[in-house]
Amino acid sequence: MYVGTDVAGCTGTDVHRAHYAWGAWAALREVQEFCESHCWLAEIHQFTCLWSPDSLDAMQGWTANQYDDCIMQIKAWTEKLMNVEQSFTTSNKLLTVDCAVLHEEIVHELDSINTDILRFLTSEVEQRAESWILELKRAIESLSITTSDIEAFGHYTNMVEHYQNMTADLHQQLEYVRSLHERIRKNYRQLSGEDEAMEEQMLDLWDNFVPLLRVATETVSSQLPSKVDAVDATFNTLSQELQDVVFLATSGKFLDVSQSSAEMLGELQAMSRQFHSLAGQLYGLNRTKQSLKGKPLDLSFIPSAGRKLDTRKAVWELLHISKQKINDWKQLPFHKAFIVTINF
Questions:
Q1: Residues in a beta bridge with 89
Q2: Which one of 87, 97, 170, 343 is most buried, by most CB atoms within 10 A?
Q3: Neighbour tally for 267: CB within 10 Å
């Protein structure tokens, strides 16, 4: 055979070298096969190398299932690494691959990442729970206060509508915190006494909030028609009062320049204060009407009415100042004047 003829023609040293080369090649082939069968280590290595504090920030708002997937993946990797032998030796004992680093470093890194996730998850739950509890306490306190004042009732109506729109989101936040608690319990440890007390407090607040919001909704629904009627009636009354003020200020004696400018100006200033007070009440009613019905009142007449009043007041201010100047001038002593006539 070709091989036999070749070996027969070789020296003892050549045969030894060929045998060693063949053994080295076989050993390298086994090592290569070992590496190929452990190619999954590359994914773990990449994961640990890319891990940073930013990785935790990116987890904010994760669903419970996303936390589950990540935690279970790390656990699966850790178990798989622990099953890898400390070393691998080729069948011909020529090469040995030291795998101790997998246990000493990568498993340790995965454990550290797992601890980071637990710490972050615990902090995330606490912050969300505290924020939710504060919101529910504020809601319960606000919904418990009822009033007969029209403006306050408008604010109350807005608040009830606000919490009606938020109910689904608030319930979702409650369930989210509970689901994260369950992930801590399932994957890491039993809940602490503080964790359990916080969750119990959240459930108690929710049990108080839901019926209270239902009662508040019924209250708004039953009282809304009468409150809207009251707003409209008050609006008509105040509107008429405001227009009466402007009419008085722009007619009658306020058109008579023979009247005392000081007295007229004093009355107009008082009427101006009354006008602004009425206008402020009307704007307040407008906000209340929008809270109750979502539609504004027609207040377009206020600016034009205000300009009429301001114009009349400005005329009397000018007249008053002019009269004062004339009177002051009349009080000045008369000085002899020399008139020089120039003939051309």
A1: 96
A2: 170
A3: 18
Beta strands in 71-117 (DSSP E): 87-89, 96-98
Domain boundary among 217, 247, 274: 217
| pLDDT band at residue 16 using 50, 70 and 90 as cut-offs | low
Maximum average pLDDT range among 21-30, 44-53, 162-171, 192-201: 162-171
- Total domains in the chain come to 3
From 35, 105, 48, 102, select the one nearest 74 (Cα to Cα).
48
Residue 336 reports pLDDT greater than 70: no
Q: Can you give the pTM of this predicted structure?
A: 0.64
Cα(181)–Cα(40) distance, integer angstroms: 32
d(CA 110, CA 112): 5
Q: How far is CA 126 from the centre of its chain?
A: 17
Q: Are 265 and 317 in contact (CB under 8 A)?
A: yes
294 vs 117: CA distance, rounded Å: 47
Token pair of 73 as six digits: 């993946």
pLDDT per position as a tens digit, 271-327: 999 999 999 989 988 888 887 777 888 888 889 999 999 998 888 888 888 877 777
Query: Domain range holding 23?
Result: 1-37
Phi, psi of 95, rounded to the nearest 5 degrees: -125, 145
What SS3 state is found at 4? helix
